[in-house]
Amino acid sequence: MNFEHDPHAxxxxxxxxxxxxxxxxxxxxxxxxxxxxxxxxxPESATQTAEQPQPEAMAQPDDSQQPSAAQDQSQxxxxxxxxxxxxxxxxKVRKTGLAVLLALCGLSVAFGLWGxxxxxxxxxxxxxxxxxxxxSGSPSNKAHIAVLHIEGTIQDKSDTYDQEWLLTxxxxxxxxxxxxxxxxxxxxxxxxxxxxxxxxxxxLDYKETSGNPVFAFFGPLAxxxxxxxxxxxxxxxxxxxxxxxxxGVIAGQSVDLSQFLEKHGVRVNTFTAGRNxxxxxxxxxxxxxxxxxxxxxxxECYYQFVEIxxxxxxxxxxxxxxxxxxxxxxxxxxxxxxxxxVVGRFDDAxxxxxxxxxxxxxxxxxxxxxxxxxxxxxxxxNMQALVSRFVPTANTSDHLLLEAxxxxxxxxxxxxxxxxx
Length: 421
Description:
The protein is α/β, with parallel strands linked by helices. 46% of the residues lie in helices and 16% in strands. Strands 3, 4, 5, 6, 8, 9, 10, 11, 12 and 13 form a ten-stranded mixed sheet that branches. Helix 5 (89-117) runs antiparallel to helix 14 and helix 6 runs parallel beside helix 7 (193-210). The longest helix is centred in the first third of the chain and has 29 residues, at 89-117. The radius of gyration is 43 Å and the shape is extended. The termini are far apart. The relative contact order is 0.13.
């Protein structure tokens, strides 16, 4: 046992503190020595002496009472934590938005993959042939009706339409003895004059080469160039909800931004030879001469369309010109004007074609264009849609201009037999 004298005790009261010495803890003596070295000198007055802590309190501190400095530090830490939480609130929101975006992208990929894995092998309970484009014997080992799907804007190539595939397939079917007829399944707003006329002429060649009939069925939309192609058919059946007609042509479009560019201090210089070379440019106002040039192109394509309709539908030029004002018609309106033969369903079109062939045993075989990178296109489109929802447009006026451009200038070649609702 060690006895230590308390230096704070008064000279009249000599108290001693009994400190047990443990053989397992040798740090007490050093702590006591350090405390003695750091202890202040003898207080100058009795009042100051009375204010000093008692030896017992120093030797046995109460753990339940925290020092004031520690309390301040704890309060400061809590304040910092609160400020940190407030400061990271927006960051958490952004992280949550990013997590949602990534989750949606993952779902898009999953659904796209599932769509490919679970893609049906039949359509309308009939056989489907995709990508058949070269003649190497009959793709079906028995006589059948070739259902040729024409879907989307008529142009060189898109996700749903392939001009080269379509022309090659029609040509191949001309020499396939198992093909007894072609049934066009059309769902199209039309497209380029050149592409539409090529398909029309190829179908006429098919009928001449094979001696087989061509029928057409109209889905939701068979307008302008879509109707132009159908003029090669011997018989047209339209669903009662079909929109068709729009017999007319768009020779081109001009977006004159010259005043807009001038207002914003933008000057575009185009160097040309020939006074009409830069007509319809974004910085070139339309002149009367430009209008005459474009109108002559539109008129030529228009009268070609009208003549084909009149010949195909057994109408006079006067009758056709009266109804060919570019308007769209419902199925019943088209029937009243002689633009189609009957309002019915796809199975009705098959029935009428079998009746024409006098063979009700013929089954349809469906032909679709090959879809290149269909899965990646699906994912990319869904990614674009998702990003557009999370990334706002920087400038509203720029957004409106881009939207107007996309609506006014579809990605097709002009002149065009095209309808845009």
